[in-house]
Design brief:
By secondary structure, this protein is of the alpha+beta class. It has 12 helices and 16 strands. The strands form 3 sheets. A 7-stranded antiparallel beta sheet has the order 7-6-5-4-1-2-16. Strands 8-12-13-3-14-15 form a 6-stranded mixed beta sheet, sandwiched between helices. The longest helix is centred in the middle third of the chain and has 41 residues. The model has no long low-confidence stretch (mean pLDDT about 90).
Length: about 375
């Protein structure tokens, strides 16, 4: 898939702009604060309907405006689709080929991106909830039903927690009602565990080789630290262990008014030489681990979907030495559409610059290298 055209209306610092992309390499160059990262963020919103940064949807709307629009034309092998996301202070709407899609979960996984953004280092340094969210996004882009299962689990979790709080207040419990909720949560958990175990297994098949090509070290893996303490998917074992945990922890849960066990507490641990990278790896090593993980994500997507997502790279080369930059470039094949931001074109390897479409951003105005301006309305 290739993003052919992007239109922004009232998005961040852009009043209205239309950009046409190269199917290969696209580079946005500009000073910090010029708005180049906002372009990547807009593409991310077009794919996932929400920002890659912290904040609310309303933070995306241009100052003193009441709504925004992000629209794009995406070219597939033998057809093209139009995608659009609109946000105002009341609603968010998504469209495919002009038709409104009622459920956002039905929209996601249509147009897909993989990104390396500054805050992606939180994959290692951040909290378990950050990693779970990233994992959910990655699997959700591959399998539309996965996000529906996650939403169903979260709804059941909310119902269960509210009931536990009620028990805590009035001291009365209907265990039959709890059994019904528990069984429903186990059923949907089995579906989610299946996708998570499969995805992490696919990542671990190729991650060591990627990291070795970047650093010379191959002893790396992602460990799925689930709340059940199991290392493989087995329906019978998972069902029995979840039932046992619900039974064993019922008194504690009633006292605390919350569900203490379940996949909402799972985590990913990055192990390098069998040590937790969050604790033992330097920031430079952590950055390279995340890059290797993102490349693995790209290749897993290709293996499953038989096409590459659009790759977004935000200032990825600035803190990496020349040797490792060259190693990264080797993974960026000609049939991958890459959209890169940088403050200095010299930081980008010449192999990427050659044949790239280069956009220069200054004071919110975008010019294509050579002097031509992109389509813009004031």
């Amino acid at each position: 898939m290739k993003l052919r055209e992007l239109k922004l209306v009232n998005f961040r610092n852009y009043k209205e702009v239309i950009l046409e992309f190269n199917p290969g390499i696209n580079i946005f160059i500009g000073e910090n604060g010029s708005g180049k990262t906002n372009i990547l963020e807009a593409i991310y919103v077009l794919s996932l309907t929400k920002s890659s940064r912290y904040g609310t949807d309303l933070d995306l709307i241009r100052h003193e405006e009441s709504n925004l629009q992000v629209a794009g034309n995406v070219k597939f092998d033998d057809y093209e689709k139009k995608y659009k996301v609109t946000i105002d202070k009341f609603t968010k709407r998504v469209y495919i080929n002009g038709n409104q899609i009622k459920k956002i979960s039905d929209y996601i996984s249509e147009f897909c991106v993989t990104s390396f953004l500054p805050n992606d280092i939180e994959i290692i340094k951040g909290s378990p909830s950050v990693r779970r969210n990233i994992l959910n996004i990655q699997i959700g882009l591959l399998y539309n039903n996965y996000l529906k299962h996650v939403n169903e689990y979260n709804s059941l979790l909310k119902i269960r927690n509210e009931y536990l709080k009620r028990i805590n207040l009035n001291g009365q419990a209907d265990t039959k009602y709890l059994d019904i909720i528990n069984n429903k949560m186990i059923d949907v958990s089995l579906k989610i565990y299946y996708f998570r175990f499969f995805y992490i297994s696919e990542i671990n098949k190729i991650l060591p080789n990627i990291y070795k090509k970047l650093t010379g070290i191959s002893d790396i893996k992602v460990y799925y630290q689930n709340n059940l303490g199991i290392d493989k998917y087995d329906v019978k074992s998972i069902r029995e262990m979840m039932q046992e945990k619900y039974k064993k922890n019922l008194y504690k849960e009633m006292m605390q008014g919350m569900t203490l066990n379940g996949l909402h507490r799972d985590d990913l641990i990055f192990l390098i030489n069998n040590l937790d990278a969050k604790i033992y790896a330097s920031q430079g090593q952590q950055r390279l681990i995340v890059i290797a993980y993102k490349i693995a994500e790209l290749l897993v997507f290709k293996n499953i979907k038989h096409e590459y997502p659009v790759l977004l790279l935000d200032d990825v080369f600035s803190e990496i030495d020349i040797k490792r930059r060259n190693n990264i470039v080797k993974f960026l094949k000609k049939d991958i559409q890459v959209i890169i931001t940088t403050t200095d074109l010299e930081e980008i390897e010449q192999d990427l610059v050659n044949g790239a479409k280069i956009f220069k951003i200054k004071n919110g105005e975008i010019k294509i290298k050579g002097g031509a301006k992109c389509k813009k309305k004031k």
